[in-house]
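Bumping my old thread because nobody answered last time. Still need a sequence for this structure:
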């Protein structure tokens, strides 16, 4: 009996149409002899009444009197409501289900309200439900800290819940269901020629997520890779196979996963295991079992796997030329920006010049801080970020040349760029973002 974790996002849990599609996906796994665990996000998006942003809106007028602990209590309600509603609906369809909040699912997390990380999972309650023939329906995005308080896992935290639970119960697969048919080569709203990828590596999808793609949360990708959890992105509303997140190597299953599978199958009935997120990855056994490693690229043909286009930025340029002590002055400024919880993107430090992108929502805070600091700066509004991601870019000459050529041929300019081994990002005018994205997409044959 295989355990399959199925995570359903807000569009899947927001209406009876979504519940019907969700129930059908669950039935398919049961008919194939599998045991599903369902993880759900809050129902819909604002202005839906139980969406996370709608719940936060209830206390928005009293923000100056806010409490981070109580904010997490409020945000966690959305997923709990969703779990209860979905559980009721599944039972109405003849499927025996049981709702669990994060603490009941055994999820122990850190103390960072709003951004807690999972420390460990005790899946005994979920395993007991599976043994009783029930379908656990787990509220995503939440856990409990060591003080017994509810904490949330940050935006996209339900993805993290699903993959972490998959690791804890030794799931054969985790399916992330959303409103698109898989990971696409580009945002189809920006590039109509974008297509669904059959497969993608952990590093590539992780980079795309970090650069702003919304299909998967970066932390979920990390857990999938480090704990060898097979992962797939699919649509709730179609039977398309979706996108498989491919591991670059194969390893033996870890002891925790094997023990959990024995528990689920009744071999070691009454036993349970607690998965510690830091140390449950696959390892070579003491007897010296050889671990097969496959370091081949997913495709020897494609250089670029996908592109990510994100609007809504301003470019900030700071001139330290007048600073008497450049090094300390620069350190002090970055310290102040960090204390203000400002997230900087595409940072470029070159001598007495610093350039970075900042989200439009943080613009006023950044401007006041820089004025108070007394440095010379300029802000260019209406910027966007275009990121080109591909594992085969590593060590491949000429990629930046092709990006520049594509932008020039498309009539799109760019201000500056940054890069890593498998990502090149360029800052473009927001008004040219669609033109730039289509040109680069076409240059690398992604359509």
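Sorry it took so long. Here it is:
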């Amino acid at each position: 009996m295989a355990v399959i974790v199925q995570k359903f996002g807000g569009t899947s849990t927001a209406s009876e149409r979504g519940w019907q599609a969700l129930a059908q996906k669950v039935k398919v796994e049961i008919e194939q002899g599998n045991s599903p665990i369902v993880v759900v996000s809050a129902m819909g998006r604002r202005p839906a009444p139980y969406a996370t942003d709608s719940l936060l809106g209830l206390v928005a007028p009293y923000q100056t009197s806010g409490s981070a602990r109580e904010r997490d209590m409020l945000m966690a309600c959305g997923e709990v409501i969703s779990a209860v509603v979905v559980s009721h609906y599944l039972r109405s369809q003849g499927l025996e289900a049981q709702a669990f909040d994060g603490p009941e699912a055994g999820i122990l997390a850190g103390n960072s309200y709003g951004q807690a990380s999972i420390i460990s999972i005790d899946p005994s309650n979920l395993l007991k439900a599976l043994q009783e023939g029930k379908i656990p329906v787990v509220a995503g995005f939440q856990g409990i800290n060591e003080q017994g308080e509810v904490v949330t896992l940050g935006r996209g935290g339900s993805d993290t819940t699903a993959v972490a639970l998959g690791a804890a119960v030794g799931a054969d697969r985790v399916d992330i269901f959303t409103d698109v048919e898989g990971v696409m080569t580009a945002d189809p709203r920006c590039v109509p020629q974008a297509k669904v990828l059959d497969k993608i590596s952990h590093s590539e999808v992780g980079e795309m997520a970090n650069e702003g793609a919304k299909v998967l949360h970066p932390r979920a990708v990390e857990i999938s890779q480090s704990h060898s959890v097979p992962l797939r992105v699919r649509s709730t509303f179609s039977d398309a196979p979706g996108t498989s997140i491919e591991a670059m190597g194969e390893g033996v299953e870890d002891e925790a996963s094997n023990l959990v599978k024995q528990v689920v199958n009744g071999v070691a009935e009454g036993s349970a295991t607690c998965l510690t997120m830091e140390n449950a990855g696959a390892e070579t056994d003491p007897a010296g079992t050889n671990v097969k490693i496959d370091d081949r690229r997913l495709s020897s043909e494609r250089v670029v796997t996908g592109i990510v286009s994100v609007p809504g930025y301003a470019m900030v340029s700071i001139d330290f030329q007048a600073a008497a002590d450049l090094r300390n002055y620069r350190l002090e400024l970055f310290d102040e920006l960090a204390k203000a919880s400002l997230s900087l993107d595409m940072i470029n430090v070159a001598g007495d010049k610093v350039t970075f992108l900042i989200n439009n929502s943080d613009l006023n805070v950044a401007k006041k801080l820089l004025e108070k600091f007394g440095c010379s700066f300029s802000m260019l509004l209406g910027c966007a970020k275009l990121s080109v991601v591909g594992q085969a870019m590593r060590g491949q000459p000429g990629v930046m040349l092709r990006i520049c050529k594509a932008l020039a041929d498309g009539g799109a300019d760019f201000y500056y760029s940054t890069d890593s081994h498998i990502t090149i990002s360029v800052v473009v005018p927001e008004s040219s973002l669609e033109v730039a994205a289509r040109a680069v997409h076409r240059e690398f044959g992604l359509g």
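The two ends are 39 Å apart (CA to CA). Let me know if any region looks off to you.
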